[in-house]
Design goal:
single chain; 442 residues; alpha/beta; Alpha-Beta Plaits; Rossmann fold; 18 strands; disordered C terminus; protease; hydrolase; EC 3.4.-.-; Peptidase_S8/S53_dom_sf
């Protein structure tokens, strides 16, 4: 591109907008009636540190345009706000603004309906239960279910970025189910429904509302809190079972960049691939994060062996935007029985899916994700000095190779038998593992 053309491009306000924001702006302009000025929810990233002075200077440059500050994201020298189209264009012409992103709404990656992963032997033969490894469930909250608080309370911390409440709760029910998939100890079921890492601590971070929705700015704030408090609460893993359409690459996606920062800070981040399959290239954001462990779903068909497992039709397929190879792994995700949050939205809407008084079942890659988070907790208990990259590489290397393309299942189905010297990627090892181990978490 010539120098003149480059200057012309930089004069246009869209040169600082992410692809998702450009797309939304065009949609609004095509429908907008003369004289109206529709509003957009955006995240503004500054070139300098986020300070009161920087905000005052920005407001001075905008003149009469209103610039309310909703959330300050010092993590990125950014803030979220709601602006008109005219204000957005002025913002993009301000010298102090680096980029402007659409503050997108994300949803819990729930499809509709019992967990299976090979953790029982690791617990019985090696004593691997996730003890000492805490998992942050960044979702709709966590209800203090008996399987999490008895015989002692394993909800080590709770932070609410939606309603500001201090005590653990879950008005949707999704996050509580995930916490059980990862770390439920089967207290209420007398050991029948046990998660992958039943002695791991749970850090509940509420970023999604009662409907299971939340904005990028809220989720980023939740991830930033996990990074800032990782040593205080022993957070080694973040489980993210939420997402939305990936419009650009990770460079164009601030939530994806937040995931990358968490990994660089030493936290293993496990993310749902999404439920938009079976089409090619349907990996959701932030599952397109290069450093995250992106998880798809399989149907375990209620059998002990992994060889007969089938890819779930709804599980999002790779590659991710930009050609990135995703997903990384798959795990059981159909009809998973876990913890019920009484009175929550899902508890009321899916009353027919209750299992006894304390449990209910769900389906989706959102359920597969905490199972892999639990597997990562077992690995970190055995080898506590592993980096996030080493955790990811180890789980991928020892995954069970199902007969599907990498675009469907990545490296294969998560398999923790290698922690006790049973199972592996070779046919002989797989046969030994299948004959020796039951894959049920119960």
């Amino acid at each position: 591109m010539g120098t003149g053309q480059e200057r012309q491009r930089k004069k246009h306000p869209s040169h600082k907008m992410c692809p998702a924001l450009i797309r939304r702006r065009r949609q609004i302009q095509s429908r907008q009636k003369p004289g109206s000025n529709s509003k957009l929810r955006v995240i503004v990233k500054l070139k300098q540190r986020l300070t009161p002075l920087a905000i005052r200077m920005l407001r001075r440059d905008l003149g009469q345009e209103a610039l309310p500050i909703h959330r300050q994201l010092a993590f990125f020298s950014a803030f979220s706000t709601i602006v008109s189209i005219s204000c957005l264009d002025k913002l993009c012409r301000c010298k102090g603004v680096e980029n402007v992103y659409l503050d997108r709404k994300r949803t819990a990656t729930l499809y509709v309906a019992s967990p299976s992963i090979g953790a029982t032997q690791a617990r019985k033969q090696r004593g691997l239960s996730g003890k000492g490894v805490n998992i942050a469930i960044v979702d709709t909250g966590v209800y203090p279910h008996p399987d999490l608080i008895r015989p002692y309370n394993r909800i080590v911390a709770f932070k609410d970025f939606v309603n500001g409440r201090k005590r653990p709760y879950d008005d949707n029910g999704h996050g509580t189910h995930l916490a059980g998939d990862a770390a439920g100890n089967g207290w209420a079921s007398k050991g029948k429904y046990v998660g992958a890492a039943p002695e791991s601590g749970i850090v509940g971070v509420k970023v999604l509302n009662a409907n299971g929705d939340g904005y990028d700015s809220t989720i980023i704030e939740g991830i930033a809190w996990c990074i800032a408090n990782r040593k205080r609460y022993g957070i080694r893993i973040i489980s993210l079972s939420l997402g939305g359409l990936a419009i650009g690459t990770c460079q164009d996606d601030l939530l994806c960049q937040a995931v990358e920062r968490a990994v660089r800070a030493g936290i293993t981040v496990v993310v749902a691939a999404g439920n938009n399959g079976p089409g090619r290239g349907t990996i959701e954001s932030p599952g397109n994060s290069p450093s995250a462990i992106t998880v798809g779903a399989v149907d375990d068909r209620r059998t002990i062996v992994q060889a007969d497992d089938r890819i779930s039709w709804f599980s999002s397929r790779g590659p991710a935007k930009g050609g990135l190879r995703k997903p990384d792994l798959v795990a059981p995700g159909e009809s998973i029985t876990s913890l019920r949050a009484p009175g929550s939205v899902l508890d009321r809407e899916l009353a027919h899916q209750r299992v006894g008084k304390q449990y209910f079942y769900l389906t989706g890659t959102s359920i597969s994700t905490p199972l892999v988070a639990g597997a990562a907790a077992l690995l970190l208990q055995r080898y506590p000095k592993l980096s996030p990259g080493q955790v990811k590489a180890s789980l991928k290397r020892r995954a069970f190779r199902l007969g599907y393309s990498r675009g469907a299942i990545g490296s294969g189905e998560v398999n923790v038998r290698f922690l006790i010297g049973v199972g592996g990627s070779t046919p002989a090892a797989r046969k030994r593992g299948q004959s020796a181990a039951c894959r049920r978490c119960q």
